[in-house]
């Protein structure tokens, strides 16, 4: 090998010095991922029996109440601080009435978890799409979502979840004014301690497909582009988040996560409230598919993706990998 050492002085700064060993790399790591940064989504359905695998989301399941409680306890034991609950109703109708039924599936699930795992933070998704016969996130009339009428039902849903014991409600419908309507209804019912995590920048994304299969929430007609955000709009995402904070949101969220890391970074610089990001079903399914074909190391790729979301500015990451990642990180 040719000797270059005497041809030019070498820079005194050698960045590789701080990469030399695992111990040094850990000491100077700028972004850390811990179990307490993660939230585990769970799907609950009526009935008992064993949990049933979701074909479109390998490793995820539809849980009956018993399975939900068992899984929630495992999540808590793994060091995950919170779960986000999605319900599959026994019935659907035009008004999504099981969403706000005190004996609805989410309400039953919340009460069951709180009875057995009271220390676990329970967050509930507040939307109508799983519960309506048409699959949209609000009241549908003549092919149009009626924003203001939908607010009343969404507020009723949030109140019923909080009354069942939910620590936090997470409106995901993207109706204008939903955070203010929910905050007002919660306060009027004496539920002032219930926090709101708003899906503030929820984009009309192609990455929701596996979830819609899992939650049986695909619209029967049309799409959700009239209320979910256009993927090209970053300024609007900031406006949405700031409006939600003004209306009373305690936390705001970006969904999906990886295609919108720039939005996360912008919101981190614009807001002081805790910021969440949702690594959605399509992101999860892509990693699972690549790992199944041997194209990526599953564990390494999942942890790298989660770390990237944290590095972009997310305080909390909602991810289907949460419980598994907690074991990897322990």
Question: Layout of SSEs?
Answer:
Elements: H1 22-28, E1 38-45, E2 52-53, E3 61-63, H2 65-77, E4 82-88, H3 105-116, E5 121-126, E6 139-141, E7 144-146, H4 147-164, E8 168-171, H5 178-188, E9 195-202, H6 209-215, H7 234-247, E10 251-255, H8 261-270, E11 275-279, H9 281-292, H10 298-311, E12 316-319, H11 322-329
Parallel strand pairs: 1-3, 1-4, 1-12, 4-5, 5-8, 8-9, 9-10, 10-11, 11-12
Antiparallel strand pairs: 2-3, 6-7
Helix pairs in contact: 2-3, 3-4, 4-5, 5-7, 7-8
CATH class: Alpha Beta
Largest sheet: 8 strands, parallel, barrel
Q: What share of the residues does DSSP label as strand, in percent?
A: 15-25%
Q: How does the helix and strand content classify structurally?
A: alpha/beta
CATH architecture: Alpha-Beta Barrel
User: What is the overall number of helices?
Assistant: 11
| Total number of distinct structural domains | 1
Q: Residue ranges: pLDDT <50 for 5 or more in a row?
A: none
| CATH overall fold name | TIM Barrel
Overall average pLDDT: 94
Number of strands: 12
How would you briefly describe this protein structure?
The protein has helices spanning 22-28, 65-77, 105-116, 147-164, 178-188, 209-215, 234-247, 261-270, 281-292, 298-311, 322-329; strands spanning 38-45, 52-53, 61-63, 82-88, 121-126, 139-141, 144-146, 168-171, 195-202, 251-255, 275-279, 316-319. The protein has 330 residues and is α/β, with parallel strands linked by helices.
């Amino acid at each position: 090998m040719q000797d270059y050492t005497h041809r030019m002085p070498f820079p005194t700064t050698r960045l590789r010095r701080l990469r030399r060993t695992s111990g040094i790399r850990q000491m100077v790591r700028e972004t850390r991922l811990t179990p307490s940064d993660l939230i585990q989504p769970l799907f609950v359905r009526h009935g008992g029996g064993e949990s049933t695998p979701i074909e479109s989301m390998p490793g995820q399941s539809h849980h009956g109440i018993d399975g939900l409680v068992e899984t929630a306890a495992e999540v808590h034991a793994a060091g995950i601080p919170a779960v986000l609950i999605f319900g599959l109703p026994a019935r659907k109708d035009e008004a999504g009435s099981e969403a706000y039924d005190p004996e609805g599936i989410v309400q039953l699930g919340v009460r069951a978890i709180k009875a057995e795992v009271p220390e676990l933070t329970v967050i509930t998704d507040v939307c109508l799409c799983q519960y309506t016969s048409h699959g949209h996130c609000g009241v549908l009339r003549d092919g149009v979502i009626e924003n203001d009428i939908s607010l009343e039902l969404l507020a009723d849903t949030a109140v019923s979840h909080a009354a069942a014991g939910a620590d936090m409600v997470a409106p995901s419908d993207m109706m204008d004014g939903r955070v203010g309507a929910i905050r007002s209804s919660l306060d009027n019912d004496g539920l002032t301690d219930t926090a709101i995590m708003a899906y503030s920048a929820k984009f009309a994304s192609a990455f929701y497909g596996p979830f819609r299969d899992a939650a049986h929430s695909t619209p029967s007609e049309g799409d959700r582009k009239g209320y979910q955000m256009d993927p090209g709009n970053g300024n609007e995402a900031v406006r949405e988040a700031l409006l939600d904070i003004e209306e009373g949101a305690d936390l705001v969220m970006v969904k999906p996560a990886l295609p919108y890391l720039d939005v996360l970074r912008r919101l981190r610089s614009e807001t002081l409230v805790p910021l969440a990001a949702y690594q959605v079903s399509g992101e999860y399914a892509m990693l699972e598919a690549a790992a199944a074909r041997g194209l990526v190391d599953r564990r390494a790729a999942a942890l790298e993706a989660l770390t990237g979301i944290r590095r972009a500015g997310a305080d909390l990451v909602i991810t289907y990998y949460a419980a598994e990642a907690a074991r990897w990180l322990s």
